[in-house]
Specification:
This protein is of the alpha/beta class. The chain has 13 helices and 11 strands.
Length: 367
């Protein structure tokens, strides 16, 4: 295993560019970088630039991972670069990325089924609850796209790995793998996103473990609030996720998997707006009806986990939502945003130290 970082949230990644960011990752003491898509590595998929990136990563002894992008055709209008990559043909663009990724040894490629919209609160922040098209129809359309891409993926030894993203459940991911084939479809395990779907992180990880091929290692605050539950990204070890059993599980099924930290993005890279609080409407009848696979046993385990975490918050061991927001982002005005480069690096270091300590305690070989 190696411990690296999600390239989308790497501080100054756009300012430095993909190539220089490799040296930045090395300087931070990390083992690699997981760029969201091949287009983040080279917007034109320039083969020379991609080979240079591969060569530099090898020189620095860094892992290099990437992805394809969104594969839900109902949300592709929000990511026009996918259409541009194929000269107007989205499928051609995605196949081109599969081919160029394989050429530089990136055969584990991230895909996602939706876009998160922080400007909306509650269920409307995710595509699952769109009112113009049902989630069932979105999943069927996503399956069709995966089937269209599958021959190219198989031909190049590529897995299209579906992230446990904000809108999809582990149960639905398993059904997509079964429908299209585990020989070309896998999983990107985001260790915190399943909390937004009412799933217990460890139980979801157990369901998906045999098919996990990439990761987003992420922690979060979850606490009761008006309308449901607050969700807020936190450094690993300061949130609700218990990483020890998850890391042991991953080491058991895939001991060479890369662990890519996903952190809160620097406000210097992306100025933060005063969005509504992220609310998981877990008690809302419409929200519950939208999760037919969620059973009472898992919900019970979820709330036992939540109760234990809230006891830590009440004891002052962990900052509540508002205190953390005020300290890091100048809540409620957001006019003063101290969460910049230095604070982001601190987030990375705190998370990395926690994961390294857990791996060492369990005898997990972490390069």
């Amino acid at each position: 295993m190696r411990l690296g970082i999600d390239g989308l949230k790497l501080p100054e990644v756009k300012k430095r560019g993909a190539l220089a960011s490799l040296d930045h990752v090395k300087s931070l003491g990390l083992g690699g970088v997981f760029f969201s898509t091949l287009l983040d590595m080279s917007p034109t998929l320039d083969r020379g630039a991609l080979r240079e990136l591969r060569s530099r990563a090898d020189e620095l002894d860094l892992y290099l991972e990437a992805g394809l992008g969104k594969i839900n055709p109902f949300c592709n209008a929000e990511v026009p670069e996918l259409r541009a990559a194929g000269g107007g043909d989205i499928i051609a663009g995605l196949i081109r990325m599969i081919e160029t990724g394989a050429e530089i040894g990136c055969r584990e490629l991230w895909v996602s089924t939706g876009n998160f919209k922080p400007q909306f609160t509650g269920r409307f922040a995710v595509d699952r609850f769109r009112t113009d098209v049902s989630w069932k129809d979105q999943l069927l359309a996503t399956e069709k796209v995966l089937r269209l891409l599958a021959p190219a993926a198989r031909a190049h030894g590529v897995h299209m790995n579906i992230e446990t993203h904000d809108e999809i459940t582990s149960f639905e991911i398993l059904r997509l793998i079964e429908a299209v084939g585990e020989d070309c479809v896998g999983v990107v395990l985001d260790t915190a996103n399943m909390l937004q779907r009412g799933e217990h992180p460890l139980l979801a990880a157990r369901r998906l473990a045999p098919w996990v091929r990439q990761t987003h290692i992420k922690d979060a605050y979850v606490g009761r609030a008006p309308g449901g539950l607050d969700f807020q990204p936190r450094p690993c070890g300061s949130g609700i996720v218990d990483f020890s059993p998850i890391l042991a599980l991953l080491a058991g099924v895939n001991p060479q998997i890369n662990l890519s930290l996903e952190i809160a993005q620097s406000c210097e890279d992306k100025p933060r707006q005063a969005w509504p609080r992220q609310c998981i409407q877990i008690d809302d009848p419409l929200w519950r009806a939208g999760h037919p696979d969620l059973n009472e046993q898992e919900l019970d385990a979820y709330f036992v986990m939540l109760d234990a975490f809230e006891q830590q918050v009440a004891a002052g061991e962990i900052a509540d939502w508002e205190s953390y927001e005020r300290a890091h982002y100048g809540y409620p005005s957001y006019q003063h945003q101290p969460y910049g480069y230095t604070q982001t690096v601190g987030f990375i270091q705190q998370s990395a130290d926690h994961i390294r300590a857990l791996c060492a305690a369990q005898g997990i070989d972490l390069r």
